[in-house]
Design a protein that fits this description.
The chain is of the alpha/beta class. Helix 3 packs across helix 4, helix 5 runs antiparallel to helix 6 and helix 8 packs across helix 11. It is globular and about 70 Å long. It has eleven helices and 13 strands. The strands form four sheets. Strands 7-13-11-12 form a four-stranded mixed β-sheet, with helices on both faces. Strands 1-5-6 form a three-stranded parallel β-sheet, with helices on both faces. Strands 3-2-4 form a three-stranded antiparallel β-sheet, with no helix packed on it.
Length: about 325
């Protein structure tokens, strides 16, 4: 059985420390267009740029960064590097609802398999981004370590991706709305001070707002309760908390998860340059494995509505 590698794109925010720890050899780097018009490959590891400065520059909403897929030639070069070493490939990309990376990887696969007909290449849509991809890859690599084949791991990813949740608070939907990366925003969009929209991934791979809370305490309480009601086997999980220039909030959320949910580990990670321009400053969310996501997030909306009622009632009884 041939060895294989899992290669995520840069929207996974799979930094060098994570790659070294979990055995991910490469990241496919998308492009970032800066406000002055020049473009660079995504600085996945924040070697050239500082994440705090990057997100602070966006705070006024006058500085806009744009992103683009990796050039087709870069995809083929990266894939071929591993094919030449006799390794098969699982490519895991940003949700195809958000990016064309998946389609470009499929095109590269078609060309390369003509040259390497004995190799296998799976190009998979993660149905998410950032921390959700980290969770999915960690789980897939654990299966690989247990001796699963590339076919088994690819099938596992396809099955599991609809069980990876996102929950946390967002200070402002401006950048998500501007780039079309959130659904049903009209029902919840607003700029009222202290309003925190709460979103999970829907089955199409978009963030969908399922409720909003006033104040960070209520938003954090709701996040913890939502995780408790949707997570599966937390004691065996590595939960990932991602943030965009909200370090203090991320530390607080991570500690509450450790204290109340008791997972195997909590990893705190920055939102990277691939997703950052579409998210902007202000996200603090947890990513984890849980119950399968329902169509239209119907079940998840009911769960959050119940949580909201409980929080409201507790407030009245004080």
């Amino acid at each position: 059985m041939a060895d294989f590698v899992i290669i995520p794109d840069s929207s996974s925010d799979f930094t060098k420390d994570l790659r070294d720890r979990f055995g991910v050899p490469d990241v496919l780097r998308g492009m970032v267009y800066f406000p002055d018009g020049h473009a660079e490959a995504c600085d996945v590891d924040w070697e050239k740029y500082n994440p705090k400065d990057f997100f602070e520059s966006m705070r006024s909403k006058k500085v806009i960064y744009k992103t683009a897929t990796a050039p087709t030639g870069d995809i083929k070069t990266l894939f071929e590097k591993h094919l030449k070493e006799g390794k098969d490939i699982i490519s895991l990309s940003l949700s195809r609802a958000l990016s064309g990376t998946h389609s470009l990887c499929e095109m590269a696969k078609k060309d390369l398999l003509k040259q390497y007909p004995d190799r296998k290449i799976y190009c998979l849509d993660s149905n998410g981004y950032s921390g959700s991809m980290v969770v999915l890859i960690i789980m897939a690599l654990k299966l690989k370590e247990q001796g699963a084949s590339i076919d088994e791991v690819a099938q596992y990813i396809e099955k599991t991706k609809h069980c990876i949740h996102q929950m946390g608070s967002m200070d402002d939907l401006f950048f998500l709305v501007k780039t079309g990366r959130i659904s049903n925003f009209k029902a919840f969009f607003g700029s009222l001070m202290g309003i925190n929209p709460m979103a999970d991934f829907n089955r199409e791979g978009l963030s969908q707002v399922i409720h909003k809370f006033k104040g960070k305490k209520a938003a954090f309480d709701a996040t913890l309760e939502y995780i408790k009601k949707t997570i599966i086997d937390p004691q065996d999980q590595i939960i990932v908390v991602c943030h965009s220039n909200r370090e203090q909030q991320a530390q607080l959320l991570a500690q509450r998860i450790r204290d109340e949910i008791k997972p195997k580990e909590v990893i705190i990670n920055h939102i990277g340059m691939s997703c950052g321009p579409s998210i902007g400053p202000g996200l603090c969310a947890a990513y984890y494995y849980g119950t399968e996501i329902s169509e239209g997030l119907e079940n998840e909306q009911k769960i959050m509505a119940s949580i909201a009622d409980d929080i409201k009632n507790r407030g009245k009884n004080k």
